[in-house]
Design brief:
Strand content: 15-25%
Mean pLDDT: 94
CATH class of the largest domain: Alpha Beta
Radius of gyration: 23 Å
Largest sheet: 8 strands, parallel, barrel
Distance between the termini: 19 Å
Low-confidence stretches: none
Number of helices: 15
CATH superfamily of the largest domain: Phosphoenolpyruvate-binding domains
Shape: elongated
Number of strands: 21
Length: about 450
């Protein structure tokens, strides 16, 4: 089981609801299940969350549960008449033209803004604000139609970062014990800080993911990384805002900066898009997934491919196969390269990782209360698998998106010697390690204590 380092996130939906499909997805390689709060009601979310917990029990391993909040989404009015817009044509957005379902729309736009419809076209440059109307000129032609989504680039912060629907879905995520909560259309670090405050008030300890899909988010990336637990490179809406040509370098830079900071990063959107209808990916899609893996992404994500596609299981299988092959590359480029650790614990973690690599150890075994030690090891993107043994409930699930980490539960031991013996046996039984295999174990001398890692040893599996 210690073969693929890059994790796979798959979105659940109607295509995964049939009996046995979720079990087959897990067998194919699913590590974390995503529930898209933009689709389906509370009962759908509740039912699918229960199925994720059940399938993890049946599989005997941790499966992450990710709630993806919809965020503020603008749309054209349902009364919008379908029509094609030509380049250079003047279009008014507001009561005197194309109506937007947001009465403060003029307050959103700035002199730098463009109004972008659907998946990127048509695109309009803002000319002026005229009372309740926004006057624009079409710079990229395309169709207008009812309920189409709208993006405004360089928008003023008039839209709430977290909507009433998001608050309701966040409450459900807290109730169901979600392991991860992602926020759409993040614009600043303050958006994630607001989400964390709300999550804590609701009693949720979920790891928080900032979706990077707005120009403003990318421009504030370091600040957002600092307050987030992980990132998602949401290429769809970023491509809509910045243009598709800007997506590749943004993706690579985001992966690099997240990894240097020791934060996990998911690469998402249209990775195997053709598999919504076809049983095999295109060569271009395989190359796209492989490049993300070589760049060091922690995880790759499937959306419509698994939620509504014809071949959900085959999509996960293809993703797993491509990722495994890409990991044969001579170097994974995203690995953290900082040479001076900030703390003693971080220095010990790095020493353990290097020692395991130099000895060609079968595994690096990391008993942990919070999962922090395993995360500190994962950012170096070394070949040696990291077996994380979690003392606290839920911690193993929250490690399912960490590169090269294979998490499971282990009881807290009373003494250090007992902890070492228990860790070796638990890792052996969980990962199928052979008796006599050489491993490196790193832990604390105070068992079950967060932040107490100060021990590195080489042992053999009993």
């Amino acid at each position: 089981m210690l073969e693929r380092r890059t994790k796979i996130v798959a979105t659940l939906g109607p295509a995964t609801d049939a009996d046995g499909v979720l079990d087959r997805l897990v067998a194919a390689g699913l590590d974390c299940a995503r529930l898209n709060c933009s689709h389906g009601g509370p009962e759908d979310l509740r039912r699918r969350a229960a199925e994720v917990r059940a399938v993890g029990e049946r599989a005997g391993r941790a499966i992450g549960l990710l709630f993806d909040l919809q965020g503020p989404k603008l749309r054209l009015s349902a009364a919008t008449e379908p029509r094609a817009v030509k380049a250079g044509e003047e279009v008014v957005f507001g009561p005197d033209g194309v109506v937007v379902d947001f009465d403060k729309f003029p307050a959103l736009v700035t002199e730098r803004s463009q109004v972008v419809i659907g998946d990127g076209v048509p695109r309009f440059a803002v000319v002026r604000v005229d009372g309740p109307n926004v006057v624009t000129t079409c710079v990229s032609p395309g169709p207008l139609s009812a309920r189409k989504g709208i993006n405004v680039t360089y928008a003023r912060p008039e839209l709430p970062a977290i909507t009433e629907k998001d608050v309701a879905d966040l409450g459900l995520a807290a109730e169901l014990g979600a392991d991860f909560i992602a926020l759409s259309f993040v614009r600043s670090a303050g958006d994630i800080e607001q989400l964390r405050s709300l999550a804590l008030e609701l009693g949720s300890a979920a790891k928080l993911i900032a979706k990077i899909e707005k120009i403003e988010a990318y421009e504030a990336l370091d600040d957002i990384i600092a307050v987030s637990d992980g990132l998602m490179v949401a290429r769809g809406d970023y491509g809509v805002e910045a243009g598709v040509a800007r997506v590749p370098l943004m993706q690579k830079d985001t992966i690099r900066r997240a990894t240097q900071a020791g934060k996990f990063v998911i690469t998402a959107t249209q990775m195997l898009e053709s598999m919504i209808q076809n049983s095999e990916p295109t060569r271009a899609e395989a190359t796209d997934v492989a490049n993300a893996v070589i760049d060091g992404t922690s995880a790759v994500m499937l959306s419509a491919e698994t939620s509504v596609g014809t071949y959900p299981v085959e999509s996960v299988m293809a993703m797993a196969e491509i990722a495994s092959a890409a990991e044969e590359a001579p170097a994974i480029h995203g690995r953290a390269r900082k040479t001076v650790p900030d703390t003693v614990g971080e220095a010990i973690m790095r020493s353990a990782v290097e020692l395991a690599e130099q000895l060609s150890a079968a595994a690096l075994i990391v008993p942990s209360s919070t999962g922090g030690a395993a995360r500190a090891c994962a950012k170096y993107r070394k070949r040696c698998p990291i077996i994380a043994l979690a003392h606290q409930p839920g911690v193993a699930n929250q490690l399912t998106l960490e590169w090269g980490v294979y998490p499971t539960d282990m009881p807290t031991a009373v003494t250090v010697d007992e902890m070492i013996d228990l860790a070796l046996v638990t890792a052996r039984d969980f990962a199928g390690l052979e008796t006599g295999a050489r491993v490196v174990l790193t832990a604390g001398r105070r068992t079950g204590t967060p932040g107490a890692t100060n021990l590195v040893m080489v042992r053999e599996i009993p």
